């Protein structure tokens, strides 16, 4: 016997996820502007690296599961910093070929790898939240301001 999804009489039935390229680009645009991935209106961040609890417009709860929800943002921060390092390193070598100043590249790489993760920290939180919304679409109970004990497993 197949279990039917439970729906609430006060909340609309969840929509099928629309995982298309245009939807992904729309979410990415919201992430670049540091806006709510659900509505795109309100900012996700209250200050440098501090995430608001909910969206001021649609009331979407930004921390979608446990207290350690944004530990996945560290992964995105590392991947982004390493990608930028690789692109910058390759560009510096190509532009300075054949007289490469290895001292400048070495010291610049160390400085860049120390500063880049700190500078990208808030963006990585918003990017992680955006990818999570793309993979696990927002459910109606996540936008209910009266619901304070919501986790991704259910109410």
Molecular structure report:
The protein is mainly alpha-helical and 155 residues long. It has one domain (21-143). It is 46% helix and 3% strand. The protein is built from 3 helices and 2 strands; from the N terminus they run αββαα. It has helices at residues 21-32, 72-96, 102-135; strands at residues 45-47, 50-51. A two-stranded antiparallel ribbon has the order 1-2. Strand 1 and strand 2 form a beta hairpin. Helix 1 (21-32) packs across helix 3 and helix 2 packs antiparallel against helix 3 (102-135). The longest helix is centred in the last third of the chain and has 34 residues, at 102-135. It starts with 20 loop residues before the first helix and ends in a 20-residue tail after the last helix. The model has no long low-confidence stretch (mean pLDDT 81).
What is the secondary structure topology, with strand pairs?
Blueprint (H helix, E strand, L loop, with lengths): L20 H12 L12 E3 L2 E2 L20 H25 L5 H34 L20
Antiparallel strand pairs: 1-2
Helix pairs in contact: 1-3, 2-3
Notable characteristics:
mainly alpha; two-stranded antiparallel sheet; 3 helices
Oligomer: single chain
Uncertain regions spanning at least 5 consecutive residues: none
Query: With helices defined by DSSP (H or I, 4 residues minimum), what is the helix count?
Result: 3
Give the strand tally: 2
Gross morphology: elongated
Integer-rounded radius of gyration: 20 Å
The strands making up the biggest β-sheet line up spatially as 1-2
Tally of discrete structural domains: 1
């Amino acid at each position: 016997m197949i279990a039917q999804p439970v729906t609430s009489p006060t909340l609309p039935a969840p929509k099928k996820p629309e995982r298309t390229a245009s939807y992904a680009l729309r979410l990415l645009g919201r992430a670049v502007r540091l806006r709510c991935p659900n509505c795109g209106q309100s900012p996700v961040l209250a200050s440098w690296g501090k995430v608001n609890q909910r969206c001021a417009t649609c009331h979407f709860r930004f921390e979608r599961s446990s207290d350690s929800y944004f530990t996945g943002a560290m992964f995105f921060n590392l991947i982004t910093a390493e990608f930028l390092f690789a692109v910058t390193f390759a560009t510096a070598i190509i532009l300075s070929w054949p007289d490469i100043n290895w001292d400048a590249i070495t010291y610049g790489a160390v400085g860049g790898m120390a500063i880049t993760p700190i500078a990208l920290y808030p963006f990585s939180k918003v990017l992680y939240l955006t990818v999570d919304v793309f993979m696990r679409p927002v459910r109606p109970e996540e936008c209910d301001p009266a619901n304070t004990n919501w986790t991704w497993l259910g109410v």
